[in-house]
Description:
By secondary structure, the protein is mostly helical. The chain is built from four helices and no strands. The radius of gyration is 17 Å and the shape is elongated. Helix 2 (14-26) packs across helix 4.
Amino acid sequence: MGILLMIIVKLLDPIGLVVCFVLLLKLRDKWWSIPLAAMASAFMTETILTSTQITRDWGDGLAIAILCGLLQAVLVYGLFKLNENFRKKKKLLKENVD
């Protein structure tokens, strides 16, 4: 039960989501940007959490952070692709109307 709660909390982490968003915004056409964004997000959040908590060792939640980073990166990448497809369809409809 504790691991499930950790996964839910990490999925709702705004800092990790922002890191994924920024990296995927820069590299949105590359498929390998998903694991890169997940790893960067996991390492960054783990470093921030370790530096702000005295009783925590670096790497305590790294596996869960990588898993949640992957889920966040896939979500953001999917939203980028969905937006791209929407813009293409909108442009195509606009050209057909004219």
